[in-house]
Amino acid sequence: MEYYITYDCSRIYIYDNENNTDETVPSPHVIGKDPDVRLDKFLVVGQVMPVEDLAVMIIYNIKFLFLFVPMLGWGWTLVYYEAFRVIDSMWFAWVTQSNHIPMNIDHDDNKPWLKLQLFATCDHEQSLFNDWFTGRLNFQIEHHLFPTMPQHNLYKVRPLVQSLCKKHGIPFQIKSLQRAFGDILRSLKDSGELWSAAYHAHHLS
């Protein structure tokens, strides 16, 4: 079975040549449409309290305590919880920011939707380690373009996206994991110098 993709200003389309079907993928970064944007489910937006999702979070924590307190006691349960949350948070932050922070992100200048995604994200090289370490988010470009696609299928559409970008003259950037992590540190250094210069210019002059 063969597939090809095309796009317009707000969507990407996947066409199946055999069955002549297509799948439209909604734009990311939209509350209710982007599976990565779920804060509206846990925070108060406007005047509405998301009671159902708050209940899910409460039930999760009760279940966690019910399972671990009898085995570890209260003290070690809290230590375990904080330990895996700290490790998980740092791991997640490094992986996700290596695809985003070093890229060009600016005010909206009315670029087409596909170009905005490619200018704001990058991929990492594919390897067994990179696939495992990043949870296949080394295919971050494809994840942005197809946010509902299972992550184990993202590698399949990379060649299609690359050919589409080549056709339209859009840069498609793939970095090594080491370079991506180094870019985080360089980006933080640049940001720190920018804030330091602004602080000294306005408060110490």
- Number of continuous helical runs: 6
Provide the residue-averaged pLDDT. Answer: 77
Strand order of the largest sheet: 1-2-3
Question: Low-confidence spans: pLDDT under 50, at least 5 residues?
Answer: 20-31
Give the ordered list of helices and strands: EEEHHEHHHEH
Write down the overall geometry: extended
Judged by helices, strands and strand pairing, the structural class is mainly alpha
Which percent range fits the helix content?
Answer: 55-70%
Gyration radius, to the nearest Å?
A: 21 Å
Sheet with the most strands?
A: 3 strands, antiparallel
User: Whole-Å distance between the termini?
Assistant: 67 Å
Structure explained in plain terms:
With 205 residues, the chain is mainly alpha-helical. It is built from six helices and five strands; from the N terminus they run E-E-E-H-H-E-H-H-H-E-H. The strands form two sheets. Strands 1-2-3 form a three-stranded antiparallel beta sheet. Strands 4-5 form a two-stranded parallel sheet. Strand 2 and strand 3 form a beta hairpin. Helix 1 packs across helix 6. The radius of gyration is 21 Å and the shape is extended.
